[in-house]
Design goal:
Number of helices of chain B: 12
Helix content of chain B: 25-40%
CATH architecture of the largest domain in chain A: Roll
Radius of gyration of chain B: 19 Å
Strand order of the largest sheet of chain B: 4-5-10-6-7
Number of strands of chain A: 5
CATH architecture of the largest domain in chain B: 2-Layer Sandwich
Strand content of chain A: 15-25%
Oligomer: heterodimer
Helix content of chain A: 25-40%
Strand order of the largest sheet of chain A: 2-1-5-3-4
Largest sheet of chain A: 5 strands, mixed
Structural class of chain B: alpha+beta
CATH topology of the largest domain in chain A: Ubiquitin-like (UB roll)
Shape of chain A: globular
Structural class of chain A: alpha+beta
Chain lengths: 153, 294
């Protein structure tokens, strides 16, 4: 089937099978590797991407469903240098292995877009669907809170 | 892991086209809305349709509006749509309270409430609340449109009164002054399925609707508890009387998420707290919607 899709501002036209997931097409056909293959059942959040500005689980979306939609991955918000949020992830040691980080950065980006000054509870709720096995979450939450306060402590 | 099952995919542009596709198809078919259950089930080989019909391009199914006193919720309205809707937060904040407990942000952005009751798993969060609201389910099929009372909707584990050639177009809820509550027991906040859940609506003159989730093969209403509450001011004795009825009303199982006894005990606790909160909310008091009661 024909798939017309915009990924990080770039137009793609691909021939895909109905059973191909968006996650697999992004990684294997387009070569975008930041969405990770984790649980593949919507629990872990490592495949999180933005579709039309909202986070979705790309493992639970068929590629054909993304026809005519606009996809942003963490690569797409980093072309002109990393974002302020990403800088704060560095400063706060908000990742170790990094497997969950693209998904968490995108989830936090969506949160800050809709709620520029989130509370700790807001951040916890927004990131509840993104599992991290390294950090214990606190450095991640601190970074997002700092971004919400304009980067200051 | 790829989806092993091969299937055809159609994306009709109108409801009539969707109905035509479903009517003319002779094999197994699944309707795709948000897909958060469907794609997971496809990957698990729990289902193996030879046709998937994606209804997301059908116009009008996103509608979320108030028609007089009827709240109209289209088949494609997501949990995030409900949480962010002014109409819902003003007229039926219970729907937002329930929606906030569903999975995670990335799932809520995609998953639809209608899909939730079409999947019809025992723990579906929308089930108890829509039962308590006496929701009407509107479907269309080869023989035209029909409505299904939500109380007739859940016919078994993952089974509904909808036939394979029918599409749910929308739900309607006849709203009147009420206080509601959805209490959901999870192993941790965020992202988990309900271990047990209670949906309650209090109407004026001591009239209640009481429904449970994840403690029977389907979400269930309790007519006995509603009858016992009818017409009597809620006090400690009345709460104790109906809490004592819970054990005979539910049939929970023991599984990896909770034991039957724990589910039963917590359902009693949640009914007790929920009845008080719903009654207070009816009076314009009580905990704000969205406050977790357990």
């Amino acid at each position: 089937m024909n798939l017309k899709i915009k990924v990080n501002g770039e137009d793609w036209v691909l021939d895909v099978a109905p059973a191909d997931t968006l996650l697999d097409v992004l990684r294997e056909r387009i070569g975008i590797k930041s969405p990770k293959i984790g649980c593949e059942r919507g629990d872990c959040g490592s495949c999180t991407i933005l579709m039309d500005g909202r986070t979705i689980r790309s493992c639970l979306v068929l590629a054909v469903e993304a026809d005519d939609h606009d996809i942003t991955t963490v690569e797409g918000i980093s072309y002109e240098g990393i974002s302020e949020l990403q800088t704060l992830f560095l400063e706060n040691n908000s990742f170790q292995c990094g497997f969950c980080t693209p998904g968490i950065v995108l989830s936090a980006t969506e949160l800050l877009e809709h709620n520029p000054n989130p509370t700790r509870h807001d951040v916890q709720e927004a990131l509840a669907g993104n599992l991290c096995r390294c950090t214990g979450y606190e450095p991640i939450i601190d970074a997002v809170l700092a971004a919400g306060r304009g980067g200051t402590e | 892991m790829v989806i092993a099952n091969e299937f055809d995919y159609r994306r009709p542009a109108t409801l009539a086209e969707a109905t035509e596709i479903l009517t003319n198809h002779t094999g197994s078919v699944r309707i795709l809305a948000g897909g958060t259950d469907l794609v997971a089930w496809l990957r698990d080989d729990a289902i193996a349709p030879d046709l998937v019909v994606d209804i997301k391009n059908v116009p009008g199914l996103n509608d979320l509006r108030l028609d007089g006193n009827d709240l109209h919720i289209g088949a494609l309205v997501t949990f995030t749509d409900l949480i962010e809707s002014d109409v819902v937060n003003e007229h039926a904040p219970l729907l937002a309270e329930m929606s906030e407990t569903v999975a995670s942000q990335g799932i809520r952005n995609r998953a639809t409430m209608v899909g939730n009751i079409c999947s019809a798993v025992p723990s579906c969060d929308a089930g108890p609340v829509l039962l308590a609201y006496d929701t009407t389910v509107h479907v269309t099929g080869p023989d035209g449109d029909r409505t299904i009372d939500i109380n007739e909707w859940f016919v078994g584990l993952r089974q509904t009164a909808r036939t394979d050639d029918e599409v749910v177009t929308h739900l309607t809820i006849a709203l009147r002054s009420h206080g509601g509550v959805y209490v959901k027991l999870m192993r941790y906040g965020g992202e988990d399925l309900a271990q047990a859940a209670v949906g309650i609506i209090a109407y004026p003159d001591h009239e209640y609707r009481v429904a449970f989730g994840a403690v029977a093969p389907t979400p269930i209403r309790s007519a006995r508890i509603e009858e016992a509450l009818r017409g009597k001011p809620l006090d400690d004795a009345l709460v104790a009387e109906v809490v004592a009825m819970v054990r005979d009303e539910i049939t929970p199982i023991t599984d990896m998420r909770a034991s039957a006894e724990y589910r039963t005990h917590m359902t009693e606790v949640m009914l007790k707290r929920g009845l008080v909160a719903a009654t207070e909310r009816l009076a314009g008091a009580g905990p704000a919607y969205g406050t977790r009661l357990i």
